[in-house]
Amino acid sequence: MNITEVKTFIVHPGTGKNWLFVKVETDEGIHGWGECYTQSDRDLAIEVHVQQLRRYLIGRNPFHIKHFTFMAYHDFAGKRGAMDLYSAVSGIEHALWDITGKATGTPVYNLLGGPCRDRIRVYANGWGGKTKEETARHAKALVSQGFSAMKFDPFPGPWRTHISRDDEKAAVGCVAAVREAVGPEIDLLIEVHRRLAPVHAVRVARMMEEFNPFWFEEPVSARNVDALAAVRGSINLPVVTGEELYTKTEFREVFEKQAADILNPDVGNCGGILELKEIAAMAEPYLVVMSPHNYNSTTIGLAATVQACAVMPNFLITEYFVNFAERGDDICVNPLKPENGYIALPTGPGLGVDLDESALARYPYREFPRRNLRQFDEEGP
């Protein structure tokens, strides 16, 4: 079997981001789907990387997945990686696994060592409100839908490293309101988006401790692992990091400096399904657990995440964007659905889901409005 074509599809489902899908076709009529992580204005750059990598895929055996990802970094990229490259590689890698599973007639997780569980716990994201009262109402609604875990960012915008005491109090007040609305049994996952200086991260975390958050995600950037480790050593909340790191190599220092309790690499940009599994394997002897980030669609990206999570002994929970579900269901064949906060493992071959190309055409790519580049304290548009 050989690869005959690699196609890309960028769709704008009206959910706040574009989705970039990759379809790999073979001379035996078996195709595979993958999804690249996308981020607003960088979507087209990621697609170009896929199209350039296409030149190195035509005529290759789709089973040779590890060799492809190794070559893509060492040869194609000259060991100079970035999000755009790793997102492209990841999407292609998913599609190769999908082909391999379909050709062998089994789910991808059976090709990676077999499942460690029959269902995957998910937390809800993509649901917050503009005020603490609205956020609390939305949180309560999620509980009624069966979710027992939910993530939200309680910090007022715009993003900045040093925040005022008023902003700190507002963030804590939002967490307090959500806790009161949902009760003590629901897991609250606090998103910080790696934007605080250590002094603020520590102070806010200590004020939030009484509300028993499930975790404190990316209090500071993982690009400064010493600062991250210092924050972890100063608070009594589990620290999460990983969504801005790519491949095993970039996680090494996090382990060595014991900078995190939980890792959240994204299957759409860390290097793919196998790379995510290998990062999880590295985490095992350090007693670190895995909660893969999943800012992708509820179609291929979710399916790839579920396949990888299934084979991790140290898996904890993963991400599900509730605001993506409607559009995902519209374009996906056999979409994965959460029930009481869990997604059952798909039993079909490959990733277990497929896409409807005619449905993709209903949501053509749209460029996002240009954002204003200004200092956080400047007024005006």
Low-confidence stretches: none
Question: From the alpha-carbon coordinates, what is the Rg to the nearest angstrom?
Answer: 20 Å
Shape: globular
Number of helices: 13
The largest sheet is: 6 strands, parallel
CATH first level of the largest domain: which class? Alpha Beta
What percent of residues are in strands? 15-25%
Distance between the termini: 55 Å
CATH homologous superfamily label of the largest domain: Enolase-like C-terminal domain
CATH topology of the largest domain: TIM Barrel
The CATH architecture assignment of the largest domain turns out to be Alpha-Beta Barrel
Element string (H = helix, E = strand): EEEHHHHEHEHEHEHEHEHEHEHEEEH
Amount of helix: 25-40%
How many structural units, i.e. domains?
2
Structural class designation: alpha/beta
Strand order of the largest sheet: 5-6-7-8-9-10
Average predicted confidence as pLDDT: 95
Number of strands: 14
Describe the overall structure.
The chain is an alpha/beta fold. It folds into two domains: 3-106, 2-Layer Sandwich (Enolase-like, domain 1); 110-350, TIM Barrel (Alpha-Beta Barrel), CATH 3.20.20.120. It is 38% helix and 16% strand. It has helices at 43-54, 65-76, 83-104, 108-111, 132-144, 165-182, 198-208, 225-232, 247-256, 273-283, 300-310, 325-331, 357-360; strands at 3-11, 19-26, 31-36, 119-125, 149-152, 187-191, 215-217, 239-241, 262-263, 289-290, 318-321, 332-333, 342-344, 354-355. α1 (43-54) crosses α3 and α2 (65-76) runs antiparallel to α3 (83-104). The radius of gyration is 20 Å and the shape is globular. The N and C termini lie far apart (55 Å).
